[in-house]
Amino acid sequence: MPISGQSSQPRKRLTKNATVRADASGRIDAACQLVVAGKLALRDITAWVHQFGVSDSEFRLLWLLFQLEGPTATCEIDQAELAEQLAVSAAQVSGVVERLMQRDLVVRVLDGADRRRQLWRLAGAGAQLVRDVIASVAAFEAPAPAQENAA
């Protein structure tokens, strides 16, 4: 019961503000945990692809193109969309695709409707590199064969 002259309104506001703060705190905590998980995942990717001579950013672009392609179809995607999907700048994508194109891992395709627009697709060698990384990770993580008892 409020003291005379006081309303119960501030108490509701405090409760609401505490709930908002708790929600914000939870979101911040979740975001911080995602950052840590992202850094650990990036560390894994770097270790997996090092032996194949590509950087983590190059592999992430190859992986994106690999994931977008179907079993029988190729996918062509422009640099702006690549940048958005990879959460990097268009300038960063430009450097990555140029390095990958020099190694014949991606192919530049001209857009028939807009010749200024550059589209990119995975080259055969790029798809093979991704498959090789998958096989390498699978072999590394496969359980060791059970040894028979020599008794």
Which helices and strands occur, and which strands form pairs?
Blueprint: H1 9-50, H2 56-68, E1 77-78, H3 79-86, H4 90-102, E2 106-110, E3 118-122, H5 124-141
Antiparallel strand pairs: 1-3, 2-3
Mass-distribution shape: flat
Oligomer: single chain
What is the CATH fold-level name of the largest domain? Arc Repressor Mutant, subunit A
Order of helices and strands: HHEHHEEH
- Measured between the Cα atoms of the first and last residue, the distance is 81 Å
Low-confidence stretches: none
In order across it, which strands form the biggest sheet? 1-3-2
Beta strand count: 3
Summing up helix and strand content along with how strands pair, one would put the structural category as mainly alpha
What percent of residues are in strands?
5-15%
* Average pLDDT for all residues: 84
Helix content: 55-70%
Largest sheet: 3 strands, antiparallel
Proper CATH architecture of the largest domain = Orthogonal Bundle
The value of Rg in angstroms is 25 Å
> What is the CATH superfamily classification of the largest domain?
Winged helix-like DNA-binding domain superfamily/Winged helix DNA-binding domain
- Assigned CATH class of the largest domain: Mainly Alpha
Taken together, the total number of domains comes to 2
Specify the number of helices.
5
Walk me through what this model shows.
The chain has 151 residues and is mainly alpha-helical. It has 2 domains: 9-50; 53-141, Orthogonal Bundle (Arc Repressor Mutant, subunit A). It contains 5 helices and 3 strands, in the order H-H-E-H-H-E-E-H. It has a 3-stranded antiparallel β-sheet. Strand 2 and strand 3 form a beta hairpin. The mean pLDDT is 84.
